[in-house]
Input
Amino acid sequence: AQSVTQLGSHVSVSEGALVLLRCNYSSSVPPYLFWYVQYPNQGLQLLLKYTTGATLVKGINGFEAEFKKSETSFHLTKPSAHMSDAAEYFCAVSEGSGFQKLVFGTGTRLLVSP
Amino acid sequence: GAVVSQHPSRVICKSGTSVKIECRSLDFQATTMFWYRQFPKQSLMLMATSNEGSKATYEQGVEKDKFLINHASLTLSTLTVTSAHPEDSSFYICSAPQGVVGTEAFFGQGTRLTVV
Output
């Protein structure tokens, strides 16, 4: 079975600082990996995804993530945090060979201070 | 991108009543949809897979008689919480995969259910 571990339930950064949200996964098959953002009382918005090919994936709002198979990691980064980035971030791995089901991590709340 | 619409966004119901939540794919057909549940400050947990034209597949520990799922058409799946109790209060969200390869699942806006 696949699983996702997100280290740190909360991450606090200052505006303009580097954002690093950690995600490690476990999968017996080549994984599809996703990062989603959730604003309060809203659904999930896809930030970026890795399926195959280039291991550095660029997403929306300046976020990017790098798939490292040797480390089973898919950490999310952004060079400079903005106040509007404050939200809950979920890393997910696709169960099975495709997209059908997503197994989510427990989420990381990003706090951005002025 | 593809759009998945979920309705209602919020609902408050009395204990013992039933509540229906709709999930629609607006601009694509979805033979499969997924229903997730999110408790406060927790992650999303898959409840069931809705299959058009056949019975839903429930995850372990999810009561199929309590959470009725009907995939009536290629664009609509419904989740009915029957005989709701306060412990059913949660955030319910659906998703539908789309695309030729189907490497992405689009999520609805979610439904905040409060049972009083």
Observations:
- DSSP finds no helices and eleven strands in chain B.
- Chain B touches chain A at residues 6, 32, 34, 42-46, 49, 91, 93, 95, 97, 99, 101-110, 112 (CB under 8 Å).
- The CA atoms of residues 42 and 106 of chain B lie 20 Å apart.
